[in-house]
Amino acid sequence: MVFFRKKRNMPDGLWVRCDGCSSMLFKKTVEDGMFVCPECNYHFRIFSRDRVKILVDENSFEEMWPNMVPCDPLNFKDRVTYPERVTEEQQKSGLKEAVIVGKAKINGSEVMIGITDPSFIMGSMGSVVGEKIARVTEKAMELRLPLILVSGSGGGARMQEGVFSLMQMAKTSAAIARFQGAGGLYISILTDPSLGGVMASFASLADITIAEPKALIGFAGPRVIQETIRRALPKGFQTAEFLLEHGFVDMIVNRQDMKKELSRLIAYLQ
């Protein structure tokens, strides 16, 4: 006679699989390690609210313009209308839009900070994202504070807003230029992924550009480029390490060290 032990029910959500090394990891361990794999140092994609907890002093973040929402200038519709898609994304992500901005402290130093969120329409840049980035930059200039922008956009310019979205590239770039012309310190942090119109505008214009390890960074994705030029791309093309080697980024910093490194840079440069 063979006896089978009854399989104990495993609660959902206790384990996660690392996309870097395929290890099964205890979720609490990953969260305690700032969402970094302890086996291979893979940096998981995280939400903007989690990044606030990691980067700034506890309870110091004061969000600005939290209720701005996009309009539908083109009456755009694909599978659903644009307003319906925005509502879906708001319910799924808990955000009003793909960026949060505000004032915060990093080891006691006041900064203005903006963080794009890939969970909301791939972190794409529409009118609200561009407006918030421009406003937080202008506020940094007014208060004479360092500006830190964290990019995690895989969606580029938001197609549902057409040329209105493309205009945000010029608007955010102009705001950054005015800020830097006034002597402001701007630090850009590139996370996985940082692509499209965001990378072709404000994300690539910083005084200091920092990337997380193995982040995908570029304008078009590598698959699109390879299919367009019909040539094999170099190994590691568009990774943070490749771009550091070729001078596009200034440093690669592990997520656990990012707050300390930002504090050091602010103290030295501001």
TrEMBL record:
Listed under GO cellular component are: acetyl-CoA carboxylase complex
Provide the CoA carboxyltransferase N-terminal domain boundaries: 14-270
The entry lists its GO molecular-function terms as: acetyl-CoA carboxylase activity; ATP binding; carboxyl- or carbamoyltransferase activity; zinc ion binding
Q: Which cofactor does it need?
A: Zn(2+)
> Which residue spans adopt a coiled-coil conformation according to this UniProt entry?
none
Which top class of enzyme applies to this chain? transferase
Q: Where in the cell is it found?
A: Cytoplasm
KW Nucleotide-binding (keyword) present: yes
Q: How is the cofactor bound?
A: Binds 1 zinc ion per subunit.
Q: What does this protein do?
A: Component of the acetyl coenzyme A carboxylase (ACC) complex. Biotin carboxylase (BC) catalyzes the carboxylation of biotin on its carrier protein (BCCP) and then the CO(2) group is transferred by the transcarboxylase to acetyl-CoA to form malonyl-CoA.
Subunit structure and binding partners? Acetyl-CoA carboxylase is a heterohexamer composed of biotin carboxyl carrier protein (AccB), biotin carboxylase (AccC) and two subunits each of ACCase subunit alpha (AccA) and ACCase subunit beta (AccD).
The name of this protein is Acetyl-coenzyme A carboxylase carboxyl transferase subunit beta
Q: What is the lineage of its organism?
A: Bacteria, Pseudomonadati, Planctomycetota, Candidatus Brocadiia, Candidatus Brocadiales
| Gene this chain is encoded by | accD
